[in-house]
Design brief:
Chain lengths: ~425, ~425
């Protein structure tokens, strides 16, 4: 894409009231726009990142047999009365609205709705297991919305729900989802740590969180080389230097961000909402359920908290809005103009995603500073000086070194040295 | 996809309270689930159709230079106070919710929000024109929600907004969008008619609607061979047999559905919200705006209203959830089983989207009745009888004739006779 056409605006400084690294950088680089505390709009660059993450999630969900659906945001009160959650637990953070005499809520989560859909479709053990997910905006009242994309009132979420004929079958899938989550985070450039946590009103069982170590995190995890814990009440009192309750190893404490959580729901919802199936033995039994959340927009915030430096964002390859930033210097020179246009077309033919800085009235220094702020993985600079040697300059955003590469070797260089993912 | 794995359930009869053809058929065929009046969830088959339509829209938006963004659903009251619409006009159909002292609305449309974003980014005539769109769920109070996907409280919408330095530049783009809309509807299998309408509180100017003729429509259009009109007040009194006010031709009246609308906003919003740019002459001027709506989920309803018969839905090729329904009859026969599996794999290799009815315990008649209800464009039946002649049966959903095609010629036949779109 031609940068002169791209709708974005960079800022030298972040607005004063932005305290988090992710909101500061994402605002300054023109990825997001703040509508109010905890409510953000995604500008073209930000939306491209969001779509990349959604694509990764969809691919990994498909691998574990999950089918995508899309439930409504508006949820009828009567469904939430069935579980008693309308006025307690998560119902308290639900935004509510009214039309005539009817009260509806804005979905903070969808257990009631999905259980209702499934109980009307599932008859026998042959219809199970069943894995359904959606990617959709969720809404939660949030008095402490102040960490950019990490804690929002409206946020993108992937929620997966699984339905099983037995606890054993559920446990197997629960492990399958764990592995898929690790793959998703890895592809997003994040090392995630699986921790135990309490059930947050969903279940009395131990649930699991995927935590990412980050200085900007609001959570803390406590760990020894073999075990990780997070907000589980039982271990909440532990601190650095204490002994691990399992292996007696020495514990350390670090700040982290919760990027996903998975819950065994057992038969909590199927019982309250009468979701049965007929088993092999002809008996009517309650469906065993699990639910698995992933903060899609939050992941963007986590990535920026983890991958940045003093100059800007450093996007991991697979989630970057574009892979390559092509920057001609001295674009007024006819030769630079002609050769950079040709390079832009040639790289596009290779199905690479290029942001082409075709702006003529911008100083070279300004272009490079802005490129660092936006943070695409690879920067290619083309100028009179490089062209004299029939070269271009290639620099990875995450590295310091700049390499001069012959134009004829550029594609091969990108493929072999940088292991570029083709789109 | 294997039909045994697909989450869907067909019904012999539609629920009694469903009056519209589109909701009756979409519910019966397992595409959508009703959450409450005017609020629907999309099951896997329905979501696939929704995604196909979104894909068409994105491709056509890109062709006319529009950039995709994603604004929040939650909208702050103070923006709507700037235009005075919080408590009048469209603000009256806005769902509102509260957190502490703060009131927010659920976006019924996004003029205020986009104008706010743009006024902070646009400085000079060089930043214009600018075309921004999003695809997102909108929310409107709707006391008459009763026509399936045609009139909803929550619905998918594509809203495009254009920003110009002059009325003349706006007019050009307005015509460009018109053409893009015709292409979108055509690709969705719909013949649309451009009609004049009143501004619905957005503008005092004449606006335009894209109407699709359908018996299930709630609108009416009045037309002679050369001109079309819809709800414009001036011509609302005209009826069949009257003379066209422009060419004196004889008018006819038919039922229709509004599938899109486009509005010249002039400087209504930029004036109320102080959205300026500096022109070539150095003078500060108001940005000229246009907005362009398209009911994404509604289009699904329109397609079904137009394309169906007594047996079920007849999906146009480009929006069908799958292109081919592969149906083995007598799947218990080892030969049918083996050969249909092979055919399924071979067709998949050609990047065709196949729904493969691999269910063993379902009677042939039931499979065929269900296939007609679901309505994929091409049905391929494979059975002992066809295999004896080394053939399969090919039938287009929209045609009556069944053709016996040699297995070796199948791909060629599909390509040349049915002009299959590859995905």
């Amino acid at each position: 894409m031609r940068q002169s056409q791209l709708f974005y605006k960079t800022l030298k400084r972040a607005p004063k009231d932005e305290e988090s690294i992710n909101s500061q950088l994402l605002i300054r680089a023109g990825f997001i726009y703040k509508e109010m505390a905890g409510v953000w709009s995604f500008l073209p660059l930000g939306l491209r990142v969001l779509r990349k993450i959604e694509k990764i999630i969809r691919e990994e969900m498909e691998k574990i047999g999950a089918q995508e659906i899309l439930m409504s945001v508006l949820q009828p009160r009567f469904l939430w009365e069935e579980t008693g959650r309308w006025s307690k637990e998560i119902g308290k953070v639900m935004y509510k609205t009214q039309e005539g005499k009817k009260e509806t809520g804005l979905g903070p989560t969808h257990e009631e709705m999905i259980t209702d859909i499934v109980r009307k479709s599932i008859k026998s053990w042959q219809d199970l297991p069943l894995y359904l997910y959606q990617i959709q905006n969720k809404f939660r009242k949030e008095p402490r919305a102040k960490s950019g994309l990490l804690r929002c009132r409206e946020f993108g979420m992937k929620d997966l729900y699984s339905f099983h004929s037995s606890e054993e079958d559920f446990r197997k899938y629960y492990d399958t989802v764990k592995k898929a989550y690790f793959r998703i985070f890895k592809r997003c450039g994040l090392d995630s740590i699986l921790t135990e946590a309490s059930g947050a009103g969903f279940t009395k069982e131990i649930t699991h969180e995927f935590q990412v170590l980050a200085d900007g995190g609001e959570d803390r995890i406590i760990y020894c080389p073999k075990h990780h814990f997070s907000q589980n009440k039982e271990i909440a009192k532990l601190k650095t230097g204490d002994k691990c309750p399992i292996c007696q190893g020495v514990l350390k404490e670090e700040k982290s961000i919760e990027a996903g959580n998975i819950f065994p729901l057992e038969t909590k919802f199927s019982k309250q909402m009468s979701a049965f199936f007929t088993d092999r033995d002809g008996k009517k039994k309650l469906i065993v359920m699990g639910c698995y959340g992933l903060g899609v927009s939050r992941i963007i915030g986590v990535i920026v908290e983890v991958h940045h430096d003093q100059f800007g964002i450093i996007w991991p390859k697979e989630v970057a809005p574009f892979q390559i930033h092509l920057i001609p210097i001295e674009l007024s020179s006819p030769r630079v103009g002609k050769d950079s246009e040709k390079l832009y077309r040639d790289l596009q033919k290779e199905n690479l995603e290029i942001l082409y800085d075709d702006r003529k009235n911008v100083f070279p220094g300004e272009k490079l500073v802005e490129a660092d702020l936006i943070g695409l993985p690879i920067r290619i600079v083309i100028s009179e000086r490089t062209l004299k040697r029939d070269c271009v300059e290639v620099k990875e955003r995450k590295k310091k070194e700049v390499k001069l590469v012959k134009r004829g070797h550029l594609l091969q260089f990108l493929k072999s040295n940088i292991k570029l993912n083709y789109v």
